[in-house]
UniProtKB/TrEMBL annotation:
Record flagged with keyword ATP-binding: yes
Alphabetic keyword roster: ATP-binding, DNA-binding, Nucleotide-binding, Transcription, Transcription regulation
Organism from which the protein derives: Brevibacillus aydinogluensis
Protein's name according to its UniProt entry: Sigma-54-dependent Fis family transcriptional regulator
Lineage: Bacteria, Bacillati, Bacillota, Bacilli, Bacillales
Gene Ontology MF: a single term: sequence-specific DNA binding
Keyword Nucleotide-binding: yes
Length: 604
């Protein structure tokens, strides 16, 4: 690229640190004629000056110690020069040149690391370099901007468009020639121009969802362009997501339609497979289902262990439905919810006129009603000791008497019991009869709490969202990833029942079909902000009061005592036990027990 001119100059050069203070060394040197295309590769102002310098050879240069100026001795005349280290950048050299206050523009002499003059950069050459650089950068910028698939708009401080790339032409179907040089608000409503914020307030936005025109949906990045602190314009980069939004809408409709079909199908499948209603693909729940399927084929008594709301009753029903007793009744009785005085008549029934207020012709008990089928004894741990004896006798002898009756009644009833208490501990403490424990504990089934199978949470969340959407004839709301993460991280003391309640709440609070973090109950939200990964608790069936996170008045470790929390929940639900239990994340039976324990009247 260098075109050498055969024109010769003879120079001397002397160097400031020459031992003799400067001695002439005659030599022949080429003056280089600078071709217009020699600088083409320049792309950056950071290019070192050495890349422009021509060898100085033996030309004489006088430099005063520590100075940035020198004198170049050119045969019969001298010229003032700027002296710049050769590793200095083009930009720095340009700045030094600008600081030169005299009328003539000097050439530059470069110094190598040994402070010896090493090259010459003429002013003309430096200027050419800047022009080439500007042209190169402009070409680079145009190529870069036109290669991008995002729409790029650059406006000056008066909102006049200076750049409008090919993608912008395609997305907005406006030619560059129509836009460049005109104010942006001539083409868009001012309020839909995010660039104006960047321009007026100097604010930047990143990946903000924006609808600049009713038919266009974009994700926009916008920022002011500053030069030495002053805003000289603004740039926006917009990713067209119109198609994505359209597809998402289509997907939502299709998903809702699909879910309706699935619901239809599940009605048939549920008839085929009683365990179909038990959702979850985690290994933990699947192994419980597998065990339940097996025991369903037998008449063995089943004792189901699991925290409140894990689905014990769901399992009991599925076991019944999968057994050969499916055509006969499934009767459930909550041992914790029935006052002790009534329990006996509930379980065994009573003879006509047996006691005041009794029905004249008598009433069969649940054990009798479940003849040929299954009796589900929920919250068996809450059964008072004196009734445990009676139940045990009935189970052993398969015979019992109605209250006030004299005729023995023989039944063939399968027993499935459930508890969230550790019955062994209760046996050891004398609160549960050992013989009844062994009578019930033929086949135990453990239902894992939700926090030990977090992988099931997204499936359950979607299930409940769909259920509520269908029940309320609404589209299924979308749940943001951070909300889903919060739900996954939560410890769920009330397990699936509590999850279901929270999803119902979220379905009500959602806005525009989207569930956001602010819709979450504060207990779950605050846990998310602190982001502690939920830790499995021990022992596995710790009482609810040890497992729930703080943050709302009904949470077990809020500042209120358990009694106060129960009273608050009852007040809030106007005495509705079921709703209060849901609020507290415990079962109704447990609530009754606790009310009894704290002497809270049932009439509340
Ligand atoms: N695996 C599951 N898939 C879908 N829904 C479930 C599942 N497990 C439980 N549920 C739902 O959670 C709620 C509570 O279930 P269930 O009453 O069977 O729990 P539980 O353990 O018997 O509670 P408690 O100890 O309070 O009596 C119900 O609405 C039930 O349908």
């Amino acid at each position: 690229m260098y075109r050498l001119c055969p024109f010769l100059y003879t120079f001397d050069y002397k160097v400031k640190h020459c031992p003799s203070g400067g001695w002439p060394v005659p030599c022949v040197y080429f003056l280089v004629w600078i071709g217009s295309d020699f600088l083409k590769p320049l792309f950056s102002l950071d290019c070192p000056l050495a890349c422009l310098a021509e060898p100085i050879g033996s030309a004489a240069v006088s430099i005063r110690d520590g100075e940035t100026e020198g004198v170049l001795h050119l045969g019969d005349r001298d010229a003032a020069v700027l002296v710049v280290p050769e590793k200095e950048t083009l930009l720095k050299a340009g700045e030094q040149l600008l600081a030169w206050k005299r009328p003539s523009v000097p050439d530059l002499v470069t110094l190598n690391e040994a402070n010896t003059p090493s090259g010459l950069v003429t002013a003309h050459r430096l200027f050419s370099a800047f022009v080439t650089l500007a042209q190169n950068q402009s070409a680079l910028l145009h190529t870069l901007l036109d290669t991008m698939s995002e729409a790029i708009t650059i406006v000056d401080m008066h909102n006049v468009v200076h750049y409008w790339n090919k993608a912008a032409e395609n997305i907005y179907e406006i030619d560059r020639a129509q836009v460049v040089g005109t104010p942006l608000d001539a083409h868009f409503d001012s309020e839909s121009i995010r660039l104006l914020d960047a321009l007026k307030q100097g604010t930047s936005v990143q990946r903000v969802y924006h609808i600049p025109r009713p038919d266009r949906h974009v994700l926009i990045n916008a920022a002011p362009i500053r030069q030495e602190g002053d805003i000289i314009g603004a740039i926006s980069i917009e990713q067209d997501i119109t198609e994505l939004v359209r597809l998402n809408e289509e997907l939502s409709h299709t998903t809702a339609h699909l879910h309706n079909l699935q619901q239809e199908m599940s009605r048939f499948q549920a008839a085929d497979d009683p365990f179909f209603t038990i959702k979850g693909h985690s290994a933990a729940i699947q192994s419980a289902i597998q065990a339940a399927r097996k025991v369903a084929q037998t008449d063995a008594t089943v004792l189901i262990y699991g925290e409140s709301g894990v689905g014990k009753e769901l399992f009991a029903q599925a076991i019944h439905q999968a057994s050969r007793r499916r055509e006969k009744p499934f009767i459930a009785i909550n041992c914790g919810a029935i006052p002790a005085a009534l329990f006996e008549s509930e379980l065994f029934g009573y003879q006509g006129g047996a006691f005041t207020g009794a029905e004249k012709k008598g009433k069969p008990g649940k054990l009798e009603l479940a003849h040929g089928g299954t009796l589900f004894l929920d919250e068996i741990g809450e059964l008072p000791l004196e009734l445990q004896v009676k139940l045990l006798r009935a189970l052993q002898e398969r015979q019992f008497y109605r209250v006030g009756g004299t005729e023995p009644i023989t039944v063939n009833t399968r027993i499935v019991a459930a508890t969230n208490r550790q019955l062994e501990h209760m046996v050891a403490e004398g609160r549960f009869r050992e013989d009844l424990y062994y009578r019930l504990n033929v086949f135990t089934l453990e239902i894992p709490p939700l926090r030990e199978r977090r992988e099931d949470i997204p499936e359950l969340v979607q299930l409940f969202l769909h259920e509520y959407a269908i029940a309320n004839d609404q589209p299924v709301p979308r749940i943001t990833p951070d909300v889903m993460q919060a739900l996954i991280d939560h410890t769920w003391p009330g397990n699936i029942r509590q999850l279901r309640n929270v999803i119902e709440r979220l379905s009500i609070l959602q806005e525009g079909g989207v569930i956001l973090p602010e819709h979450l109950p504060s207990a779950i939200r605050s846990l998310t902000l602190a982001a502690p990964p939920a830790v499995p608790l021990t022992p596995p069936y710790a009482p609810v009061s040890q497992t729930s996170p703080a943050g709302y008045p009904f949470a077990p470790d809020s500042a209120l005592s358990e009694r106060e929390r129960i009273l608050a929940a009852l007040d809030r639900t106007y005495g509705n036990k079921k709703a209060a239990a849901d609020l507290l994340g415990i079962s109704r039976g447990t609530l009754y027990n606790k009310m009894r324990k704290y002497g809270i009247s049932h009439e509340r």
